[in-house]
Amino acid sequence: MESEDDMIDDSVSMEDGFYSGDFSDYYDDPNDNENDYYSDDDDDYGLFEDDDQDAVVSRRPQLGYTVLKEADIKQRQEDDISKVSTVLSISRVYETILLRHYNWSVSKVHDEWFADEGGVRQSVGLLERPVVQVSNARELTCGICFESLSRDNITSAACGHPFCQVCWRGYICTTINDGPGCLSLRCPDPSCNAAVGQDMIDKLATCEEKEKYSRYLLRSYIEDNRKTKWCPAPGCEYAVDFAVGSGNFDVSCICSHSFCWNCIEEVHRPVNCNTVAKWILKNSAESENMNWILANSKPCPKCKRPIEKNQGCMHMTCTPPCKFEFCWLCLGAWAEHGERTGGFYACNRYESAKQEGVYDEAERRREMAKNSLEKYTHYYERWASNQLSRQKALADLNQMQTVHLENLSNLQCTPESQLKFITEAWLQIVECRRVLKWTYAYGYYLPEHEHAKRQFFEYLQGEAESGLERLHQCAEKELNKFITCDGPSKEFDDFRAKLAGLTSVTKNYFENLVRALENGLADVYSQAAAACSKTTSSKNIGGTSKGRGGRGKRSSKTGGSSKSVDDTSN
Question: What is the set of active-site residues?
Fold first, then answer.
């Protein structure tokens, strides 16, 4: 009985030419019958060649980030405050203000504090002693409302400026409701730089305001820290602590949202963040509207408004209030057209003017706009199509996990734990759709003059599309007959092997594709050089064979002469 691995190998080999990697169309050598740039036995499909197994192991993704829940964030915040308190002899309120001022960097706080404690205190607003000495009178005057109140109703920050509690509450309430700026609260006196910390908030603010302040302080730990960011998924409250220097910016949150830590957009390998930014801007900008207008309309010669030709004849009439009548071909007044211009509906002015070069610049711009629009439309349609396919695959995956797997397990008498290969296949489809989607943005910005790279890219992209469609069809349509059947099927084991094999092969190919594109398709030149070298070597070998054959013929002739001499002597 065959093992499952053997069944997988057989199922993949049965797929006619799937990722066979025959690259002879690109570097075809008529003298070389062993053109093996891609070979069926090479898991990398010619994109990369590993010297040893260590290179394969190094490719496995290593998580360079940690997803933080709210409790984790609070614990880290407390730990950082404790680290400062063990070194600096200041209050907890001042420690928090210091850390926030230096973006929650403990090392930065220590360095700056011991380098210039006085300068740090001055810039942050941490006073060692009050700047205002309050008298011992029973009543004091509030510095805001100028009411004389008893000392019990007067409160001061570290600076000593006296303000009544009502004015303090109004000041704190307004600042907290204005947003996170309340974390940098200062004394209400315009000339004072003294910091107002959480002790004053806890003393004077309402419960709702205290909660807001605490939330702002917690969020500042993530937003002010260069190593941490919030997950951008709507409604998600998890944060990500990223290890700088990890290389790969792809991050997957607990909420299942994946994004690029560098630019906060969705995961977009193999294209870089700059390309993503340009592509998103292009999709949302008005530039393509202008390109469409340039390519499909002409300005009215009188009012200059763009007009689209929606009927067959060349007689155009501008919309009111202009109502100017003109010829679509030459943009001349229609009243000047007649027999001498080639007929009302067959203007020859345009052809003669074009020959004279009058319309060359305008036509050139219009043609460029049309070509640019056609190119953008080509790539955008395919980008959007793969995005829709990915969303559909996500919905199918969810339905498979919540509904179909249980039914399939009962029908095929197989535990759900042995049906993970189906979930893995759908997850791979979702990932491959994402990669394939971004290859179209990559192709759009690939320079036109680099013909070899473009040709190589389109070949790899075509192979990727073909393979992904095979996997998607197998997981979508071929699986459906086992879900809708009445009982166990003998073909299910073969289907398992086929789907698992396609998943594995497709995963390997797409991983190699991503690496090739991230390397700028550098292999295209090395492979071309190798092919040229192989061709040259083949020709040299052929020439050597001919030379040996020639010498052999000359030897036989010499032999014949020797024989003649011998016969003569006899």
Answer: 313
